[in-house]
Q: What sequence folds into this?
C-alpha cells in the first residue's frame, strides 16, 4: 500500500497543468462546471459577470472600454458578488442582467440562463484532486485542529458532516459515543469538504438521480418530468456511472498500454520540430531572396523613371532658356535690337543690304512671336506620373503558390457595425477550410494604416468589440487548411457610430397608450394600430381636425455625455416622428392629451411646415424628424443655406446622435453612417429618446450586436 501511495504521489505531481483554472491561471478554487463542460473557479465566474455587467452599465462613457475578460481582475466587493449570486435577482431596464460570457477554456459563449451561477454544478471530483495535489505539494505542512484552544494540535481526522478537522481529544469531545454525531463520516485530515448527496440546482430540494445523455449533465426526476429535460433521453445515475467509468478505464488502460508508442511518437515529434525549424529558416531565406529581387526590380525601375524625368526636365529648361534669351535680345541695347541698331549705322549700301536681309528675317520672327506668345515647352509632367495602382493591388495580394484553398469573400449585406462589429463571410469551399483568420485595423483620418489585429475563427462570422467611436475600420479574412492559408479577401470598410451606443427599451408606463399602441414583451418594438378607436375618431375629420400623435419614450434618461442609438421604421408606416425631448417637454405633451388637435395648432404635428424644427428658436428642448411612406423629411437647418426642406428615401435604419455637452442632436443614415441632419437642442433638462406615431406604423429598436445576436443570425 505504501508503494501505491508513492506512485499516486508522483502521479498527482505530474497533473498540475490539468488543475489550473484557465481564467486566473492558478489552482482551481471551488470549480464550477460550465455548459461547455470546462471548469472554472467560482470566483472567476463572478468576476467575469461583474466585468461584463460594469461594461454594460458604462454606456455613454468615454472610458467605457474594458479589459479582456480573460485577464485577471481585482476582486470585486462582497455586496456586488452577493447581488449576482442571489437567486432570482433581476435588474431594471437600465441594467439588464448579464448572463453570457466567453468561456476562457474554449472561447465559446456560455449562457448561464435565468439562474445564473446557481444553475452550475460544483465539480467536487476536481476539487478533491486539487486538494490531494495541495497536500502532496505541502507534505511537510500539517492540517491543524479547528477546535483546539491556542496553540492548536495537529489534526488526525476530518468530519465530513461537520466540515471540520479534529485532533483525537477534540474529536472525542465533539463526537461522544452513543450520540448521533458518533455516526458521522470521518476521513483522514483534509481541507476539502463536500456534501454526501448532490442536489439539483434547478430544484434545490431534489436529489440528483439521473443523467441526461443529450446535455451530458446530472438531473433530478422533476427535470425529466416537466423541466428543461422532459424530451431528452436520460438514464439512471448508476447506469451512467458504470458506463462512463468503464469507458474511462478502458481509455486509460489503452493509453498506459501504448506508453512505448507514445514515447516513440514523442521522439518523432522532436525530429519533426527540428526539421520544421530548418525548413522554416530555409523558407524565410527563400522569401527574403524573392523580396530582394523585387526590390532590385523596383530600384531599377525607379532609377529609369527618375532618369527619364530628369532628361525631360533638362530638355524643357533648355528650350525655355533659349526662348528667354531671344526675348531678352529684343530689349533695347541688348542682343538683337542692339545689333540691329549697329547695322543701321552702316553707310555703305552694298554692305548694308548684304547684312540687313538676314537680320530683317530675324526681326520679323521676333515681331511675330511677340504677337502670338507661346512657351517653348510644357511645364506639366502629367505624362510622367507613375501609375502603380495595378501593381499595388497585386503586391497586396502577394502570397504563396496556390494551394487549392479558395479566397473567402466578406458578405457586405450581412456585415454591420453598431455597438460592436459583426463580420460575415462565405467560402466557396467551406468544408475544405479548417479555420479562418479575421484581420482588422483602424484607418486614421490622414489615411494612415495601422498594423492589423488578428483573430482566429472557427466559423464564418465573428463579433468584434472594443472599437473606437467615429472611426473607419478595414476588415479582411483568409482561410486556413492545415498550415496553408489562402490570400486575403477584399477589404470591407465600416464606419463606427459617432458615440458609444446607448441601450434602452420603450417605457410601458410613462405616457404609453395601450389602446393605440402595441408593445412587444421585449419592449424593443412598438406598433400603432389604426383600428376601432381611430374609426370612432374619424367623425372629427369632417370638421377639419386630425387624430393626435401617440407618444412613447425610452425608459432611460440622459443628462450628460455623448450617446448614439438606432431604430428601424417599418416601410408600411404612415407617419412616425423620432428624436429626443426633454423631461419638461414630455410632461407638457403627455399631461394634456387631446383626442383631436388642429395640425396648425400643434407645433410638432409635422403638417404645417414639414417639421416642428422650422420654428425661429434655434435651440429648443426637443427635436423630432418626420418619417413615413418610405420617406424621411429633413427640415431646413437653421445654420445651413439650403432654401427648403428635403425629402429623402427612408434608410433601412436611422441613427440618433445626442451630444449633451455641446447641445447638439444629429440623425444618421446607418447604411452609410452618414449624417442627414443636425441642429442645436437645449439639454439643460434630462433628455429622453422620443417617438410618436399616427396611423398604422411600427418602430423597432436596433438590437445590440453580441454573441447571442450572432447565434440568432446563424440559426436564421
A:
Amino acid at each position: 500500500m505504501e508503494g501505491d501511495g508513492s506512485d499516486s504521489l508522483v502521479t498527482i505531481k505530474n497533473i498540475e497543468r490539468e488543475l489550473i483554472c484557465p481564467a486566473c491561471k492558478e489552482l482551481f478554487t471551488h470549480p464550477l462546471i460550465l455548459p461547455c463542460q470546462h471548469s472554472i473557479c467560482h470566483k472567476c465566474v463572478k468576476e467575469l459577470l461583474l466585468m461584463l455587467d460594469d461594461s454594460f452599465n458604462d454606456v455613454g462613457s468615454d472610458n467605457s472600454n474594458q479589459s479582456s475578460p480573460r485577464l485577471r481582475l481585482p476582486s470585486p466587493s462582497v455586496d456586488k458578488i452577493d447581488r449576482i449570486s442571489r437567486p432570482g435577482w433581476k435588474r431594471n431596464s437600465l441594467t439588464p442582467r448579464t448572463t453570457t460570457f466567453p468561456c476562457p477554456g474554449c472561447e465559446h459563449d456560455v449562457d448561464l440562463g435565468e439562474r445564473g451561477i446557481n444553475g452550475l454544478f460544483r465539480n467536487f471530483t476536481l476539487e478533491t484532486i486539487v486538494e490531494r495535489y495541495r497536500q502532496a505539494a505541502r507534505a511537510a505542512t500539517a492540517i491543524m485542529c479547528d477546535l483546539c484552544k491556542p496553540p492548536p494540535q495537529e489534526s488526525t481526522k476530518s468530519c465530513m458532516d461537520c466540515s471540520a478537522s479534529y485532533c483525537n481529544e477534540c474529536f472525542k469531545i465533539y463526537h461522544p459515543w452513543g450520540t448521533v454525531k458518533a455516526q458521522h463520516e470521518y476521513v483522514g485530515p483534509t481541507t476539502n469538504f463536500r456534501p454526501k448527496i448532490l442536489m439539483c440546482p434547478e430544484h434545490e430540494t431534489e436529489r440528483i438521480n439521473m443523467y441526461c445523455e443529450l446535455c451530458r449533465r446530472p438531473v433530478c426526476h422533476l427535470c425529466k418530468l416537466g423541466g428543461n429535460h422532459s424530451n431528452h433521453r436520460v438514464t439512471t445515475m448508476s447506469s451512467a456511472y458504470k458506463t462512463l467509468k468503464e469507458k474511462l478505464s478502458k481509455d486509460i488502460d489503452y493509453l498506459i498500454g501504448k506508453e512505448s508508442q507514445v514515447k516513440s511518437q514523442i521522439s518523432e515529434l522532436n525530429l519533426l520540430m527540428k526539421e520544421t525549424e530548418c525548413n522554416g529558416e530555409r523558407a524565410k531565406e527563400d522569401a527574403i531572396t524573392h523580396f530582394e529581387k523585387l526590390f532590385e526590380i523596383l530600384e531599377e525601375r525607379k532609377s529609369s523613371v527618375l532618369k527619364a524625368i530628369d532628361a525631360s526636365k533638362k530638355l524643357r529648361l533648355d528650350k525655355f532658356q533659349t526662348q528667354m534669351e531671344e526675348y531678352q535680345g529684343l530689349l533695347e541695347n541688348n542682343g538683337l535690337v542692339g545689333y540691329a541698331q549697329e547695322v543701321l549705322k552702316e553707310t555703305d549700301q552694298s554692305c548694308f543690304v548684304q547684312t540687313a536681309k538676314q537680320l530683317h528675317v530675324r526681326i520679323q520672327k521676333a515681331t511675330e512671336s511677340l504677337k502670338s506668345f507661346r512657351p517653348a515647352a510644357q511645364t506639366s509632367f502629367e505624362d510622367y506620373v507613375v501609375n502603380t495602382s495595378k501593381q499595388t493591388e497585386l503586391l497586396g495580394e502577394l502570397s504563396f503558390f496556390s494551394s487549392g484553398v479558395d479566397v473567402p469573400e466578406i458578405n457586405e449585406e450581412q456585415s454591420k457595425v453598431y455597438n460592436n462589429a459583426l463580420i460575415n463571410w462565405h467560402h466557396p469551399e467551406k468544408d475544405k477550410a479548417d479555420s479562418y483568420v479575421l484581420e482588422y485595423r483602424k484607418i486614421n483620418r490622414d489615411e494612415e494604416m495601422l498594423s492589423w489585429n488578428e483573430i482566429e475563427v472557427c466559423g464564418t462570422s465573428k463579433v468584434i468589440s472594443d472599437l473606437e467611436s467615429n472611426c473607419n475600420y478595414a476588415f479582411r479574412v483568409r482561410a486556413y487548411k492545415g498550415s496553408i492559408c489562402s490570400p486575403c479577401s477584399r477589404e470591407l470598410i465600416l464606419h463606427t457610430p459617432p458615440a458609444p451606443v446607448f441601450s434602452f427599451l420603450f417605457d410601458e408606463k410613462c405616457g404609453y397608450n395601450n389602446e393605440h399602441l402595441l408593445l412587444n414583451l421585449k419592449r424593443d418594438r412598438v406598433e400603432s394600430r389604426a383600428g376601432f378607436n381611430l374609426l370612432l375618431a374619424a367623425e372629427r375629420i369632417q370638421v377639419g381636425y386630425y387624430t393626435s400623435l401617440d407618444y412613447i419614450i425610452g425608459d432611460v434618461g440622459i443628462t450628460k455625455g455623448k450617446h448614439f442609438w438606432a431604430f428601424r421604421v417599418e416601410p408600411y408606416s404612415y407617419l412616425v416622428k423620432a428624436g429626443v425631448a426633454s423631461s419638461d417637454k414630455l410632461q407638457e405633451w403627455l399631461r394634456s392629451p387631446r383626442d383631436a388637435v388642429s395640425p396648425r395648432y400643434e407645433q410638432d404635428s409635422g403638417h404645417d411646415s414639414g417639421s416642428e424644427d422650422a420654428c425661429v428658436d434655434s435651440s429648443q428642448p426637443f427635436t423630432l424628424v418626420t418619417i413615413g411612406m418610405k420617406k424621411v423629411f429633413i427640415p431646413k437647418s437653421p445654420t445651413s443655406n439650403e432654401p427648403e426642406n428635403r425629402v429623402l428615401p427612408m434608410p433601412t435604419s436611422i441613427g440618433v446622435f445626442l451630444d449633451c455637452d455641446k447641445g447638439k442632436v444629429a440623425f444618421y443614415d446607418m447604411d452609410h453612417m452618414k449624417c442627414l441632419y443636425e441642429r442645436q437642442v437645449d439639454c439643460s433638462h434630462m433628455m429622453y429618446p422620443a417617438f410618436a406615431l399616427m396611423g398604422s406604423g411600427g418602430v423597432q429598436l436596433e438590437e445590440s450586436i453580441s454573441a447571442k445576436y450572432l447565434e440568432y443570425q446563424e440559426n436564421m
